[in-house]
Amino acid sequence: MPLNGVGRDVPDRIPGYGDARPFSADGIAETPLREAPETESGAETRGRSVAKVVPLERSLDLLDLRDGMTISFHHHLRDGDLVVSMVLDALARRGLRGLTLAPTALFPVHESILAHVRAGVVAGIQGSVNGPVGRAASDGLFDGPVVLRSHGGRARAAASGELPVDVAFIAAPTADPEGNLSGLSGPSACGSLGYAHTDARYARQVVALTDTLVPYPLPRASIDQSCVDLVVPVERLGIPERIVSGTLAVTKDPLRLLIAERTARVLDACGVIAPGMSFQAGAGGISLAATAAVRERMRERKIRGSFASGGITGDLVAMHEEGLFDALLDVQSFDTEAVRSLSRNPGHREMSAAMYACPSSRGCVVDRLDAAILGATQVDVDFNVNVNTESDGVLLHGIGGHMDTAAGAGVTVIVTPLLRGRLPMVVDRVLTVTTPGSTVDVIVTERGVAVNPARADLAEALRKARLPLRDIGDLRDDAYALTGEPEAPRFGDRIIGVVEYRDGTVIDVIRNVV
Amino acid sequence: MPLNGVGRDVPDRIPGYGDARPFSADGIAETPLREAPETESGAETRGRSVAKVVPLERSLDLLDLRDGMTISFHHHLRDGDLVVSMVLDALARRGLRGLTLAPTALFPVHESILAHVRAGVVAGIQGSVNGPVGRAASDGLFDGPVVLRSHGGRARAAASGELPVDVAFIAAPTADPEGNLSGLSGPSACGSLGYAHTDARYARQVVALTDTLVPYPLPRASIDQSCVDLVVPVERLGIPERIVSGTLAVTKDPLRLLIAERTARVLDACGVIAPGMSFQAGAGGISLAATAAVRERMRERKIRGSFASGGITGDLVAMHEEGLFDALLDVQSFDTEAVRSLSRNPGHREMSAAMYACPSSRGCVVDRLDAAILGATQVDVDFNVNVNTESDGVLLHGIGGHMDTAAGAGVTVIVTPLLRGRLPMVVDRVLTVTTPGSTVDVIVTERGVAVNPARADLAEALRKARLPLRDIGDLRDDAYALTGEPEAPRFGDRIIGVVEYRDGTVIDVIRNVV
Prior knowledge:
alpha/beta, Glutaconate Coenzyme A-transferase, nine-stranded mixed beta sheet
């Protein structure tokens, strides 16, 4: 069996997926121009004087709905989302079967999907999975593989027609009767609707669900009426306290704080903390603490940066408001402060998934990043990163923007403790390659900092700054010395997950756990 | 030869145009799903680390440019535009030939195009013409017909692939180095970039030209970087005083003021001037005066309207700021006050041509209009309106949003004096049907008000309000009594213009003048 560009066994043809174009480390593959998606609606409303505002059941009468179709959802309501369940329940009542779900991400609340899989209503998932649904996939629940895509890769697939969405169901915290949509207000306010833009643009039929219908015209809309077929008022879109966090928790663990502080030193040594800097970090505890450490340095030296991007948090809002970043480019507002800021601050701008990270767009924001701080569930001695499967081999996480940001940023830093519980985080070979080592520059642990050999320039800078450089193999050895070599999970023969690189090539496959 | 739905001779096949689908008065034609446009760029920059900011000549090196291609421009710089000339001159220096221009509109400044037509650089025009270029078309300068489309029809044709744009050259009053674009600031500020959105979205290659390059990222952009291939800095985009007017001139002519006041009475009698009203009027002298008369009534009765749309003027801004309209939906900012308001007023929103008027979109703003006040160069006894050709048969004007707004608005009022100079404006049969009579409700002249017989409801309301109702035939007779029956222009055999209805059917053809 041929090995792809990161040395993984990827069959030429994958049952339930089709032909796999192998990932190549040589660069981004061209997206083949398949039949481009229709830009016209298939719903019964176009060109007729049917009012767009209809109850959910009536909307399903008006849509072209068939067994086997692909339906999509965005994840801005996160673990507070009630829309996926509501829609699937309604489709199930109509007897639809064999649907493919294309969510931009899933959360624990979406465990309700599993019953619909067992009943045959849902046949597969393209886009992202989460804990319970991922675990079920690893157990072999789905007939074919789930197809995992990054945020940028999903936008690319939607634009190219590789992911043809028949109906996009868009949770809209505020909507007017023509389908101008906003996430800024209403009880389910979530801020940016960045991930929904792609679906609104490319889906054959677009249905907005809202619990806050306001008079026409909504003056500030993220998605405009020309994309929306139907507007469905519902009692509740979501559970507010599970949609946005109050304040995200910075880690208090001394070991993680050490990693965070060290990460700021790494960025400083690489010359990133400088006027005009651009920056992205995740919302994990270490990343938040590293952002705080970067902030201290920017303040001390009165550095005015250019922008912070990605998921926006209250701490980035504070940095923007104190003049440390001129702009915030927001694909997803993580907390209540970020939601408020998007309304209030002219320099805080919503962006689509395509603008954020799509590799076939004409230029995406990740390509402008000086630095990205990213997490991992495993890294290996080739600097490959796994964010999908846990050490037991179970598929528990989606990709998010991980591989997009790593590919784009000038310096990509992976932050991870050497161990989590009794499991090594630096390993010989990751169970799943999510992000190729060729796009990863530095790994920061409490036991030392490893630099990708391809980046001799950075190694030299970090050495001068007296950072504790270690060979990545030594970090692995340290980890194994403490835990023993990890036992390989027992995988079966079935491919239950396909990890697409952002260009649509297959970077890895995930097999069932037995 | 068959007659179409407004009784016009339209051949099945038009040389230089192809098969003509005849206009039908029965409703909007479905847009056939031709091969959808590519969403990927053809420029040499995608997926490579070529900086987007390049001089004009270098941009032409990077583009896929060939003889016979279609290139597009927007008209937000109006009569101050220097971009069309600059680009055509550069393309001519490269020896390109047979180009089709697809401007959203043209102005007298664009007379410079004619030399390029004579030299073979430009072969045809799809979209709009103006005085000098239109006159040259009527004289038979072009080999094939120019194709005239409304703003909504052009957006539809671009979306469906009927108007495949190879390169869109977008004048951007402000741009950042990745191609985030805004019309709000810079010496060539023009406010809304509404007509450019369609081209940015569908063109195979997109080049922004700017005289104001600002640091990345531009926080408030009308068009985002994911659509833009190249950014070309130039010394001057336009001549500011010819881009936006200072204050548009309301008519002082007593006869026109009478028509304006009467128009407000008509709208009042039709029940339009009421809470929640929506309204669009042109920027002609009578329309501006009619808007002022509507404003007085709204003020007196403390009426709070919903929105005004289309081209936005300072008087509409004032109405918005005094609370008479909750929102302004702006596809084109006509004067400096409108440009400033778009920056300042959250209720003043930019909209794309598609959102404004596209009949194949999922819902456009014109369909929400309670009333539209529109001008004419001729109307006839069937209520058909001509805005394209003058009484001498010469093609002098584009369509703008005329047929879109008439089709969408609840009440469409045409305002016109009975005579202009010694020419009758109400005639037996318009020389060119731009807007079908089936979408026109009322014609207001100084000699009386004619109501379309299909709107008995309106006639009854106007009668009750003691408006001077006249039969349209009587208005024509009055006009002819004063001027004599107008002499028909002498047309040749060649079809020099095709007037597409907003759905892509052919509503009329225009022949050369001999």
